[in-house]
Specification:
heterodimer; A: about 220 residues; alpha+beta; 4-stranded antiparallel sheet; 3 helices; 13 strands; about 15% helix; B: about 210 residues; elongated
């Protein structure tokens, strides 16, 4: 049994047969519900894309919240959902069932701030050494812009994030990693965010790096 | 056709449409008619083997799983959620010789900061010390008081030991006192963190394996 609390022209809440109605983010949604048949390969491929991107988005959620804060999102759409929708289309490679994330094409921020110019990173021992050119003449650049840094570890499903890094004009930041007790690969990204957090830049992929076992920080091997 | 004894408010006996009335263990019950059951032959045997293997393995870790999977918003209970997640992740081999890949087992999922640089040191006196670090990028004020939760699985006794004493994240290590009976047994260890209020957890990490000395 469903209800029409505001009459026939109002909202539809409840279930009749296989139609269910409810409120979501202020909108009245109606859709089909109930058991469906087996999915075909295209549907499974789409579900897998969604699954692998969602799992990654969960780990770097905080970064995405700043990276997509000012993107043109539909009302009620979270930064995480927006990022998932965007990257599902561009950042998955391979054919079902062997789909993987294409880290080179992954987008972790976007916006009108000009992207870091000639950005690079070097893994030196336990340090990630980021460098870039200030490029203050670029349209939209501001000396108050700060870098955001992301090091994602696919095997560990973990990430190291800096959301409020060095100023654009400093052109360098060193990030010390905790000691690695296992061998990992790290996928590295850099973006800018404006001083007032009102705008971000497109993210730049800085490549895959191998992070191998090394001495611990406290000196015990 | 069902019959109603003792008037409209009395017991129903028999079948009327999809409803079946019966008396069971002294209780008047009504139920719907049985749906078509999936035949055992329709279920792949490999699936049955994997389910049995993972269920019996994780059952011993239920105390930890009830914490680690407590925030799962789906309708499955924590243990069922853990089994469902781990079957595709952590089973190796071919039917019928399936085995658990301990390094892939997940005992907790959540958004809290996970363990970093986790390491296992086996010490004389049947002790296992687990150490970890906190990255410089993390706000220690926010997570410093998180409690380390440790699990050790004894592959000889096929039992879990769950250790959730008061080792805070900032202490950077915790020692589990194991039992003498476990001498020379190989153990596998996992760690995850829980916020002081118990409401948020981190993903679990496999720390490693060692022999009890």
């Amino acid at each position: 049994m469903a209800e029409l609390p505001n009459g026939i022209t109002g909202v539809f809440i409840g279930r009749i047969g296989n139609i269910v109605g409810y409120m979501l983010n202020g909108k009245n949604i109606i859709r089909n519900i109930g058991k469906t048949g087996p999915h075909n390969d295209n549907q499974k491929a789409n579900e897998t894309k969604l699954g692998i991107i969602s799992a990654l988005a969960k780990v770097i959620d905080e970064f995405l919240a700043y990276g997509f804060k000012n993107s043109k999102r539909k009302p009620g759409l979270s930064t995480r959902s927006y990022a998932i929708g965007l990257n599902k289309k561009v950042a998955v490679k391979g054919k079902y069932p062997r789909q993987k994330i294409d880290f080179k094409r992954l987008i972790v921020s976007e916006g009108n701030v000009p992207a870091p110019k000639n950005a690079a990173v070097k893994l030196s021992g336990r340090n990630l050494e980021f460098s870039w050119q200030a490029d203050l003449d670029a349209d939209g650049a501001d000396e108050g812009d700060q870098v955001m840094l992301l090091a994602y570890l696919p095997e560990g499903k973990k990430a190291i994030k800096v959301l409020s890094g060095a100023r654009r004009t400093e052109e360098f930041q060193q990030l010390q990693l905790p000691a690695s007790t296992k061998d990992y690969t790290i996928e590295v990204y850099i973006s800018y965010i404006s001083d007032d957090r009102s705008a971000a830049s497109p993210s730049v992929y800085l490549g895959k790096h191998n992070w191998t076992k090394n001495a611990k920080a406290n000196g015990n091997n | 056709m069902g019959t109603i004894d003792h008037g409209i408010l009395g017991e129903v006996s028999g079948k009327t449409g999809p409803i079946v009335g019966a008396r069971s263990r002294g209780q008047n019950t009504i139920r719907s008619t049985a749906r078509k059951r999936r035949l055992k032959s329709d279920i792949p045997q490999s699936q049955t083997y994997k389910l049995g293997l993972m269920s019996s393995f994780l059952a011993g870790a239920q105390k930890a799983i009830n914490i680690g999977f407590a925030n799962n918003k789906k309708k499955l209970d924590p243990l069922n959620s853990a089994i469902r997640l781990n079957i595709p992740l952590a089973i190796t081999g071919r039917k019928p010789n399936y085995a658990i890949d301990y390094s892939k087992i997940v005992l907790s999922t959540g958004k809290r900061e996970p363990a970093w640089s986790e390491d296992l040191i086996m010490e004389p006196g049947f002790k296992a010390t687990i150490t970890w670090e906190v990255p410089e990028t993390v706000k220690l004020k926010a997570i410093g008081k998180d409690i380390a939760h440790l699990l050790a699985y004894d592959t000889t006794q096929k039992k879990f030991i769950f250790y959730a004493a008061n080792a805070e994240r900032t202490s950077l290590s915790c020692t589990m006192q194991l039992l003498e009976i476990m001498k020379d047994h190989v153990i596998h260890v996992w760690i995850f963190f829980v916020s002081p209020d118990g409401k948020t957890v981190s993903n679990s990490d496999y720390v490693g394996a060692g022999t009890v000395i």
